[in-house]
Amino acid sequence: MPADSTPCSPSVPARRIGVIGGGQLARMMLGPAIELGLAVEVLATAPDESAAQGAAAVRIGRHDDPAAVRDLAEAADVLTFDHEHVPAEILESILDEGIAAVRPGPAALVHAQDKLRMRERLSAAGHPCPRWWRAASPQEVDAALAAETSGRLVAKTPRGGYDGHGVRVISSSADVADWWELHPELLLEELVPFARELSAQVARRSGGESAAYPVVQSTQRDGVCFEVVAPAPGLDAADQERIQQLALHIAEDLDVTGMLAVELFETEDGEILINELAMRPHNTGHWSMDAAVTGQFEQHLRAVADLPLGSTAPVAPHAVMVNLLGGQESDLARGMRAAMEQDGGLKVHLYGKDVRPGRKVGHVCVAGEDLEDLRARAHRAERLINGGGDAATETTEGASA
Ligand code: ADP
């Protein structure tokens, strides 16, 4: 039985989509769902969560409460996700009882839920990964560190991390002493001296039809995605193709349904290493909403509803997306108005979230011909909306480890 096997035949598109999680990714599915005539119901933890504010149908409940997920499934043809933290047992029981399709299925999803499982599987398939170790004790952490000439490693909690929470550069087992209580094992990785980070996104339907987006460059600030440039500057056509093929292979190998993001490191000499996987729309794909024929949220819905995939072609030579990370200004409306007055080509997306320092509360995107001009415009808009004024200089952020 396929991992996402479903009571609805593959030739009958699903119409009722249950989305588990009420964050901004679920919220950004709502517009395309309306356009496609799909009924989306969101499982959110509170009525004021980002997607719950806009969805026509909302259930309040937790993603790890079997009854809440089951209730959502009973009202849906297919379940999909705003995040990857739903326990596999809950999803397996929904599949076993034939209540709804689950896309991506739990057998694929585990590789986005558990970084150790992801490393094991990708390494076994021969896909390029950083050197990595599994550590089940402080002694094993120290042994791995002792073997590293730099004396440093990246330690990760296998589960539950996001936006850099659960990732630390360490030089001693003492640096992860607080993690053992919740995590019996940790993932250790070499500290990759990457030149930049890339992201390759593909969409795949359960029958195997797939589509690749242009590979993009992403820059993090304090472990959080800050800027995305599409396509990745300076990546030639052969490398674009090679990386897209890698992502398509992974989607096929793992039997992913929906959007897959493969986060990558590129080293100075052009080596590509896989950082991690996400099986849902991803921050590095937000540019596609405004600057590709088919945005990632529409594409995810098409894939999980088993509709033909749309073109991934960009509609302009370059696009720049900059995240609005919460700053001092709690009211974004004034800055948004100012940014819109300055730049009629600017697209602004606000997530309806309370502003807290560093929190993703929205993003801006511009697309066009002149990459440096686009970057300047996107960063200026970000500063204006975040209440930082209209300084002419562009922010350049280094990638953080
Ligand atoms: P999360 O799941 O929280 O997004 P990631 O595993 O993607 O965590 O790591 C967050 C960031 O930390 C990455 O985008 C990258 O900048 C840095 N990072 C992660 N792993 C490594 C590594 N092995 N070497 C160097 N930097 C790393």
Radius of gyration computed on alpha carbons: 21 Å
Number of helices: 11
Q: Strand fraction band?
A: 25-35%
Main beta sheet: strand number and arrangement?
A: 9 strands, antiparallel
Order of helices and strands: EHEEHEHEHHEHEEEEEEEHEEHHEHEEH
End-to-end gap: 41 Å
The secondary-structure class comes to: alpha+beta
* Ligand set: adenosine-5'-diphosphate
Poorly predicted runs of 5 or more residues: 1-11, 392-401
Name the CATH architecture of the domain at 131-190: 2-Layer Sandwich
Give the overall pLDDT as a whole number. Answer: 93
Q: By CATH's scheme, which homologous superfamily of the domain at 131-190 applies?
A: ATP-grasp fold, A domain
**What coarse outline follows from CA principal-axis ratios?**
globular
Helix content: 25-40%
CATH topology term of the domain at 131-190: Dna Ligase, domain 1
CATH first level of the domain at 131-190: which class? Alpha Beta
User: What is the β-strand count?
Assistant: 18
